[in-house]
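Entry 14. Two folds queued back to back today. First construct below, sequence then structure tokens.
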Amino acid sequence: MSAPIDRLVFGPDDVDLSRSPLAGRLGGEETFVLGAFNPALTRLPNGNLLMMVRIAEALSHPIRDGHIRAIRWDEGNYVLDAWPLDLVDTRDPRKFLVHGPGWRVMALTSLSWLLPVELSADGREVVAVDYERAVAPAASWQCYGVEDARISRVDGRYMMTSCSVSPERHSTTLYTSEDARDWRLEGIILDHQNKDMLIFEGLVDGFYWAQTRPLGDLYFAYPPGSEWRAGPSINLARSPDGLHWKPYEKPGIRPHSATLHTARMGGGTPPVLTDQGWLSLWHGVEPKEIVGIYRTYWSLLDRDDPSRVVRTSHQPILEPAPELTRPLEHRMYIRDVVFSTGLADAGDHFIVASGEADLACRITHVPKSAFGLA
């Protein structure tokens, strides 16, 4: 085996916006790549790896004439919407909050689409970038973008979930493919706000399983002294066909009261089956300033009942790596974030794909011994 790697393999400077789905469709407005990050990962039939990279494309000059503008897909076209600056909060560079309605309403400073990037089998080199097969908004419920894809292969079929963003709903949508090249949009499969739906790479007792993370502004407290902390957690759902999903009654992975490092959590990579159970990599967020510190953690789940955690660790398997983004310092807009979104088996190690600093794609070789696996 060659030496393991931990490096950025694709970033904003690698994207050719002249071939973007938005190119030439914004009335001459200049755009730039805010981030090329959070890549789904799968093994192609030819043995190489495929990343579906989230490209967050933003206006170079979003503020004009006392307004901040955002990009929106509208029945096959792209339009610009403008809000008066005195009605919004622009402290987070990724979004702005609209004041006034009595509940949180936000808009995005970018519109996201998915770019297929083929890597060598070990993840070291970019082999091809396929702009012709980019996945862009195609329905009203995707009008603010297609975000954070995850790919699972189940019974020979590739299944890609993504987050579709719109004023109508914040939903999870499904794409399927026979070859991971040409994707068919199957539609919405979760209708509530859920950014991290991960389909298990295999059936359990004849059912498709998935990790989910429904969000809300209110959580009920655990009893005093509980080992669990109230807040976002990783839930489970089952399906007979991969299209129709029912929540599983038992809880999944919950934030532990013993550490603030995972005070907020969500799914990372689609669970893969090992000889000791389902390996799940997930993210935990330690509160800090506006965004927090994102790290990658892991759990092993029972192969027959994924609601049962066999083994886990409070120590992160991946942490933000500022030395990797130092050459991109001029492009940095947030820090302290690693967000793992893909996992591929490579013999004695796993290849983990992550978004680093919401900016670029990071590939890391992690030995199986790090999880106590043979």
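Second construct, same run, same settings:
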Amino acid sequence: MSPTTDNPVNSTELARRLRDESERLGFQALGISGVDLSRDEAYLEKWLAAGYHGEMDYMSRHGRKRSRPDELVPGTIRVISVRMDYLPPQAEAPHRVLLDKQRGYVSRYALGRDYHKVMRSRLQKLADWLQNEVGTFGYRAFTDSAPVLEKALARNAGLGWIGKHSNLIHPQAGSWFFLGELYTDLALPVDDEFATDHCGSCTACMDICPTQAIVGPYQVDARRCISYLTIELRGSIPVEFRKAIGNRIYGCDDCQLICPWNKFAHPSDKADFEVRHGLDSAALVDLFAWDEATFQSKTAGSAIRRIGHDCWLRNIAVALGNAPTSDAVIGALESRRNHASAMVREHVDWALAQHGR
């Protein structure tokens, strides 16, 4: 029989054991919230109306289901949010890679195994454990895989506050972590101790953004964001942002790297998030040499695969255009000058022009 708020002792004890089980499964924190996101719904609609989502049509495709959990999954009355730290402990120091324009910078979250796979399997195990405890109940698991306002839900569950860069920040863990959710019809007790906003007057994330994508506190224009430009965008990267992209070939971490709260971040202890194929500090010319088959092989089980080989080459071409001129750089770019993709050719031509070719 499912626990109810009519039996607070049982539901409270269940929530406690649920947290213990989540820790056993490798999550660093768990919180429980209700489904009221009316404040965030108004913010989302304003953000969409401003066009800040760019070509991410999926952000508006589902109407208000994103901000109304009980409409996305009928019967939902609680959301269980979990956190999993991902910072790879053995990775090359980010600032060293960013300063070496001959190497490609890959966002720290994408250096290891695809987090969707890691989180989803463990969320399912958590749901299985819960079902074993209470019997059959309604639920759905999500990991950045459906119209879910995961940061708002995690904030409401007490897992942190949403910073000016729009990432969730925990006062003892920074922001280098993934979030996942279980939508459920179980009347579990909610966590009512929300983390208050501790960004204060700090604007470090806004000031450091290479493309000035954080257009105001808590407002990110995705169309300017390097993560959007190198991951979500499928066409040509606007010329106005190419120099600012530097050597960032997949995502951007600058706003997190500068955040003072990340001095409290915890490196991950999971083998899943260990660096693969030397992508924490690989040479641009080496990565640009990957053919389609090599790209598919090297990105198997990685979040990087979703952008496809052409966008991979597009991104690296921009980085090579920003790299110091050398025979190796020119040779690499010349080797792709007649690539089958017009998009790749256009970015290669731009890069060669940066070197006076």
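Quick look at the second one. The radius of gyration is 22 Å. The first helix runs from residue 8 to 24.
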